[in-house]
Each structure stands twice: as C-alpha cells, then as structure tokens.
Amino acid sequence: MRANPRGAIVRTMRLVNREATSDGAQVTCTISAPGIIVRLKHIDGRKPSDVRRDFHRYCRVNGVIATACEFSEGRFSHRTGQPLPGSEPISSAYQCMGAPAALGALTNHFTVGEWSFALNIAPPRSAQGSGPEKVRPSMGSAFGRPEQVAATRAVLAKDRANRIHAAHTRAK
Predict the structure, then answer these.
(1) How big is the chain by its Cα radius of gyration, in Å?
(2) 56 vs 28, which has greater pLDDT?
(3) Is residue 30 classed as helix, strand or coil in its secondary structure?
(4) Residue (of 28, 31, 18) closest to 64 by Cα position
(5) By the 8 A CB rule, do 33 and 66 touch?
(6) Three-state secondary-structure class, residue 133
(7) Averaged pLDDT for residues 140-149
(8) d(CA 93, CA 87)
(9) pLDDT tens digits, residue range 55-110?
(10) 26-40 vs 112-116, strand pairing mode
(11) How many other CB atoms are found less than 10 A from the CB of residue 36?
C-alpha cells in the first residue's frame, strides 16, 4: 500500500445516524470504530447484485457495518440529471467499520477487490484566486474579438496538422 504524504491515515471512523421521533425530537446515534474503505471486484460469471449481496451477508454475520460511500455505473438524464429508470447507480465502495479481527478477515473475502485505510486529507483545490493578480487585456485590444479568435484557431490547427504529419513520417 502506498504511503500518502499529504494526509494522515484514519483508523477510527465515525458514523452518525439521526432520526426523528413521533413527537418531533431529534435522536442522534453515533458509532465510532476502526474502519477501512473497501472496493468490490467484478467476478466473471456472477451478477454484481449477487456479489454485493454476498459482501453484505458476510459483513452482517461478522459484525461489520458497511456503508456505501461511492456510487458508479449509473446512467443519468442529460436534461434533468436524475437517474434513468432501470439504471440507478450502484455502490462501488464501502466504508466498513467493526472489530479489527473482522476487518482483517473482510480484506481476504472473495468479493473484496481492493481495500485501503481512509485518509484524512482535504480535496485538492484549484483556481482559488491565490497568487499574483492576473494581467487583463486592455479595453481596446483585439483579444477575444472574433477575428483574433479565428486567427488563433487557424494557427493552432496548422500547428496540430504539422505535428501529426511529423509523427507519421517518423513512424515510417
């Protein structure tokens, strides 16, 4: 497993569950336990739903709490962003919490493709405006005008064609 110099390995995870009672009061249940992140593998000849079912069954029997933390393989409407019927995204990574012995046994289960410790790092941020002030073109410049954009496009297309031609001649 690779070391990550940007963050610390989190060996204890916290799961918070909030429920409302019939009289409107909020009840919060917090569980802290050792945990890992698990990705399921694709097994030829088995449906992904069967693999997930076997994974959840193993977790339930061994006292491991598996919570989906990543979803994939769904198709979405370009217009609304909602999942298309029959193609809902399925979970592909799970946050698993439980006893260290149960987590160790889980890493060797046939449904687990890879596992890792959770990392306590901030997501990378870019374009936050830090650094020196960016130079802006003056109001009377040709930058951004249609003629300038067309000329730049033509130069870039010619340069790309020249590089492709040079790569083909070197390959021969």
Answers:
(1) 26
(2) 56
(3) strand
(4) 31
(5) no
(6) coil
(7) 72
(8) 18
(9) 999 999 999 999 888 776 666 677 777 767 766 666 778 999 988 889 889 999 99
(10) antiparallel
(11) 23
For the CA atoms of 50, 52, 55, 57, the dihedral, rounded to the nearest 10 degrees, stands at: -70
Nearest 10 degrees: Cα torsion 99, 103, 104, 108: 150
Say which residue the tokens 């990378």 belong to: 124
Residue 3 backbone phi and psi in degrees, to 5:
-85, 145
Token readout for 98 is 């439980």
Residues 69 and 67: their CA atoms lie apart, in Å, by 6
DSSP per residue, 75-114: -B-TTT-PBPTT---EEEEEEEES-HHHHHHHHTSTTEEE
Q: Taking Cα atoms as reference points, which of 130, 128, 62 lies closest to residue 99?
A: 62
Q: Which pLDDT does position 3 carry in this prediction?
A: 46
Altogether, the residues listed in the chain come to a count of 172
